[in-house]
Amino acid sequence: MEFGRVKLRLDFSRIEDASLAIFLQCYPKPRSGLQEGGVKVLVAEDETISRRLLEKCLRAWGYEVLAVTNGTEAWESLRSIDSPRLAILDWVMPEMEGVDVCRRVRSQSDKPYTYLILLTARSEKQNLLEGMKAGADDYLGKPFDADELLARLQVGERILKMQDELIAARDLQHYQATHDTLTGVATRRAAMDFLTRELARAARENKPVGVVVADLDHFKHINDTYGHMAGDIVLQEAAKRMAESTRVYDCVGRFGGEEFLIIFPASNEELALRQAERIRKAIEATPVETREGGIRVTASFGVAASNGAGRDEMAELLRAADQALYRAKRKGRNRVEKASETAAQQTEASPRVV
Length: 354
Known about the structure:
By secondary structure, this protein is of the alpha/beta class. The chain has 2 domains: 2-174, 3-Layer(aba) Sandwich (Rossmann fold); 188-344, 2-Layer Sandwich (Alpha-Beta Plaits). It has 12 helices and 14 strands. It has helices spanning 17-26, 48-60, 71-78, 98-106, 125-134, 146-178, 188-205, 219-226, 228-244, 269-284, 314-330, 339-344, and strands at 2-3, 6-7, 40-44, 64-68, 86-90, 115-120, 138-141, 209-216, 251-256, 259-265, 288-290, 293-295, 299-305, 336-338. It has a 5-stranded parallel beta sheet with strand order 4-3-5-6-7, sandwiched between helices. A 5-stranded mixed beta sheet has the order 9-10-8-13-14, sandwiched between helices. Helix 8 crosses helix 9 and helix 9 (228-244) crosses helix 10 (269-284). The longest helix is centred in the middle third of the chain and has 33 residues, at 146-178. The radius of gyration is 31 Å and the shape is elongated.
């Protein structure tokens, strides 16, 4: 037989008429509008003829097919890292039924959504409801109709695409809510939430938390001399250097204006002091390049740390770091001071130097 440019040589005596009709119906059908490269589909079917027909139809439509013959193999495939997002599961299979595979898939909360189609000869309403309650998204009767199969797969693709877009939009919204628009570091609120969580964990684990308040020196002079556009570039570059000089589990947040809050989990005052000094050196290492030329930037730092017993109030910890920052400003800027020395010297409060 010849269909378009494809010639098929089939042994009619070895394939049931109904199955052959399904195959001839689906084989030349194009998959218009779908992405090139093929969406991966899992086919779990223990009946050889039915499985092969499903494979041929799916491949003819441009899908990438992973075929298995029992429920255990289906479950292992769907729990793997690169698992298919579309699956056709026969209801009755050796080792594990299709409805049980559905239940296990739906119990996974840490994986992207998988669209599940149950393939079954059962047509009773109660059976279909059981399949849906188990987590199936759709069902297809046996023997299957090729047009119906393609339509249900395309519905599944649309649903998966919409869900991915919703997740991407949600993630973007979350990122925008927790990251400063200009610098890309955490917002003040996100940094404070991070500090709250770390202090709670420090109380449970009896560990300290290091807190650093940093302020760019003479930032008003930079804005007045080079303009606010150049000032924005300075803020962006300073934040970038801070983030690059910290560990992956630390937090850098913009506290307001040219002031930043840096949180170091499981760090006492001495360790936080060394980390702040590394950041200070990174900021002053090279001028920040702008259209107005290179601008030399420095920053002052105040360091404090919780006592590791979880009894510290967040407000007191921040106040101690802030007072150490004032001391660094008074002593000439571009330096790091720690709260313990500020308290030991009993420095009298004075107007803030900017």
